[in-house]
Specification:
Elements (H helix, E strand, L loop, with lengths): L3 H23 L12 H31 L5 H24 L4 H26 L8 H21 L11 H39 L1
Length: 208
């Protein structure tokens, strides 16, 4: 049972890969697979990609909670968890852009990718010098904001794929505004935490 948290984390990686491939295929970006897709198949791929993202995002809470509850924290879990988060977020951002995200989404999406790769590079450089960058409380909230905002943006991009969603602009319009606003907020928090990690690394390397 103590392996359950790591299994959830591994499942998140698999779901993230499925989500990205499904969105890319729906957008016509997979040679040989996307060439002859019917519209209904494209919509189905979009729906299942969103479902996979939501399940993976929820698992991000439960794997950590279970690890603490079961006293099953492990080095392997500590390595896999941040990797799973970054793969899920970056895969969703790229998949969102492949669907032809609205212009309001492109800049924050690019900034999120820039921050994630920069912090990963900082961690790698710091690890080589024996410097550790602990995850801050704000960084944990950053991940939550990113996941919720990306889920909403994916729904916006794939709105027509969900038959149960009303096509009424009076409903869709406010949802789009809420999704964009939350995505920009998530981006702002993402950049703030990136700056914090940069400063932590700079000070740690000066003292090393």
């Amino acid at each position: 049972m103590k392996s359950l948290p790591n299994l959830l984390t591994s499942m998140r990686l698999v779901l993230a890969l499925f989500m990205f491939v499904a969105l890319a295929a729906a957008a016509g970006a997979v040679p040989g697979l996307s060439d002859h897709l019917e519209p209904q198949t494209q919509f189905a791929l979009q729906r299942w990609a969103v479902y996979a993202f939501v399940i993976a995002a929820v698992s991000d809470f439960f794997d950590g909670w279970l690890a603490r509850k079961m006293h099953a924290e492990s080095i392997w879990g500590a390595i896999l968890d941040p990797i799973g988060d970054k793969v899920l977020v970056c895969g969703a951002v790229l998949g969102l852009m492949s669907l032809g995200a609205q212009p309001m989404v492109l800049l924050p999406a690019g900034l999120i990718l820039f921050r994630e790769f920069t912090v990963s590079a900082l961690r790698e450089v710091g690890a080589g010098k024996g410097v550790k960058l602990p995850v801050t409380l704000l960084a944990k909230w950053k991940t939550t904001l990113q996941l919720v905002a990306l889920a909403m943006e994916l729904i916006v991009a794939a709105w027509g794929a969900f038959p149960f969603l009303p096509q009424d602009p009076a409903v869709q319009g406010p949802f789009i505004i809420a999704a964009h606003s939350l995505f920009w907020l998530a981006t702002l928090v993402t950049l703030i935490t990136g700056a914090q990690y940069w400063e932590q690394t700079r000070k740690a390397l000066q003292q090393a």
